[in-house]
Design brief:
rod-shaped, mainly alpha
């Protein structure tokens, strides 16, 4: 991997820059390059909130279904195996 010395504009930083090595992908001032775009943070937050809301919504739906008369069959007529007669 080829190396080259990073040139700094400040005289105080030139002494420290003599040991700095420029690697592929680094910027001229020795800062780390961005891996993700600025909008990636927004997407991550939106997806995180969406997953959280989907989890809460799914939990509420499951709780509502478990307590509904459809699941508990409250008020539904029960089939009698033997006809009842007085």
């Amino acid at each position: 991997m080829p190396t080259e010395i990073v040139q700094q504009s400040s005289p105080l930083r030139r002494a420290a820059a003599s040991t700095a090595v420029k690697t592929p992908g680094s910027t001229a001032r020795g800062e780390m390059p961005q891996i993700f775009t600025p909008s990636a943070d927004t997407w991550l937050r939106a997806i995180g909130i969406g997953v959280l809301l989907a989890g809460v919504g799914g939990g509420l739906f499951a709780t509502g279904l478990a307590r509904s008369s459809y699941q508990t069959r409250e008020g539904w007529p029960v089939e009698q195996p033997v006809p009842f007669s007085h």
